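Researcher: I need the complex structure. Ligand is iron/sulfur cluster. Inputs:
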Amino acid sequence: MTARIFTGIEDKLGLDKFKAFHKPHLTLEKKDVDQKKLVEEKLFICPAKVYTLNDKNEMVISFENCLECGTCRVVCPEEIGWEYPMGGHGVTYRFG
Ligand code: SF4
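Model: Output:
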């Protein structure tokens, strides 16, 4: 048996399992905010890259990839609505 060699965080995150609930547990609460600025200046910090921009510079929230670390909740407490996914859903960590 050979040891697995990780090359970066994406490699490690690839071990985790996700079970998405149909209702997003992350929401944009302030609709009038500059979404491009919010993603580029604050939400880039998300380790799972949940927050991205589409070609119209609108924020896309890929909540199904959330690690439930709470970082975005701390960085954007007024802009981002945050709750845990419904029981039985969300991330399951697996360590390699
Ligand atoms: S809780 Fe963590 S992983 Fe989930 S969206 Fe926020 S920063 Fe990203």
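Model: Summary of the prediction. The two ends are 13 Å apart (CA to CA).
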